[in-house]
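Worked example 3 (structure in, sequence out).
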């Protein structure tokens, strides 16, 4: 029987050596090593053997299977490599062609402008503070010196959730109130609070029922309008260039006294007059002023000892000015023809 094994081993190796292609090699493998192949049929000779002879013959058969399996796999692998090399030798790849451009995500332009403003104020020692978007009336209005009956409370302007006590915040000013209350009226406050706000506005090119507001607050001793002007100058120059000029105009807000409108010189026409600045040479970007004594008092600060300034502007307004966006709805669309124009790599 050992002679049968040796003869079969020799036969298979000769056939394998003569195989010319991958198909023929695979067919030989199935023919000799398949379930009904001659290698497996060797086990039928074990029926008439005793235990010791079975062990010895079984070992010989298993060794034959392993040897032939390895021989077939080795030749198949070599043939596959040869086929691949021949294919690569015939084909040419033009490496000078541009690679396929894979689109990648990037922060929304509003996120980018907010990060830029945060960076400016953090460099001046301000904290970035967040607060709830579902707010109480006392934080959104009352403590900001906006009493019952004030036009800002009109249901046409504010989204009320429960009677007139719970609402979607119409400004991020409640975060300022909460921060001052947490300070206990004894510590200075220097913070900005970017976030979503909600008002009952009809959506169009310049208005949205939801928008991003960035408000700031500084409370300390001996704070004046000149401190506000200097802070605003720093921000304007960082966002719109070192040649950007600023000015204040008198205005009125319920929570500041005195109140001002803050303008920047038009960075398009350089003050000569154009459609962007409506031929005035100036562009209004935010409202600001010194914190009203009543607001300080409501938040635990003695207005005779403490003063401060507050300001607020829309992130959309800043981005529209800086990047020439003409429709506020662009920020909330998913049309890639619009949004890809303002990928981070494009605006940096």
């Amino acid at each position: 029987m050992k002679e049968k094994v040796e003869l079969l081993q020799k036969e298979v190796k000769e056939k394998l050596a003569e195989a010319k292609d991958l198909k023929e090699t695979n067919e030989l493998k199935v023919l000799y090593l398949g379930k009904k192949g001659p290698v497996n049929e060797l086990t039928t000779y074990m029926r008439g053997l005793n235990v010791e002879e079975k062990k010895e013959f079984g070992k010989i058969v298993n060794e034959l299977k392993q040897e032939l399996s390895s021989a077939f796999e080795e030749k198949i692998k070599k043939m596959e490599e040869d086929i691949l090399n021949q294919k690569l030798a015939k084909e040419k790849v033009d490496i000078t062609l541009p690679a396929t451009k894979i689109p990648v995500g990037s922060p929304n332009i509003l996120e980018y402008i907010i990060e830029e403003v945060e960076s400016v104020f953090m460099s001046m020692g301000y904290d970035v503070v967040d607060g709830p978007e579902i707010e109480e009336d006392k934080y959104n209005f009352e403590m900001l010196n906006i009493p019952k009956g004030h036009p800002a409370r009109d249901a046409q302007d504010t989204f009320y959730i429960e009677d007139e006590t719970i609402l979607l915040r119409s400004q991020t000013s409640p975060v300022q109130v909460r921060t001052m209350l947490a300070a206990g009226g004894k510590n200075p406050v220097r913070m900005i609070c970017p976030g979503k706000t909600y008002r009952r506005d009809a959506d169009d090119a310049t208005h949205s029922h939801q928008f991003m507001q960035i408000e700031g607050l500084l409370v300390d001793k001996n704070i004046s309008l000149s401190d506000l002007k200097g802070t605003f100058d720093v921000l304007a120059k960082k966002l719109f260039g070192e040649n950007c000029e600023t000015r204040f105009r008198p205005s009125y807000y319920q929570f500041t006294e005195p109140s001002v409108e803050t303008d920047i010189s038009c960075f398009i026409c350089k003050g000569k007059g154009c459609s962007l600045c409506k031929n005035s040479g100036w562009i209004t970007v935010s409202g600001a002023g010194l914190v009203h004594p009543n607001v300080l008092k409501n938040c635990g600060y003695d207005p005779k000892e403490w003063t401060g300034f507050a300001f607020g502007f829309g992130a959309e307004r800043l981005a529209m000015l800086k990047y020439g966006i003409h429709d506020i709805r662009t920020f909330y669309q998913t049309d890639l023809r619009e949004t890809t124009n303002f990928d981070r790599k494009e605006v940096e």
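Notes: The chain has two domains: 2-90, 109-347. The mean pLDDT is 86.
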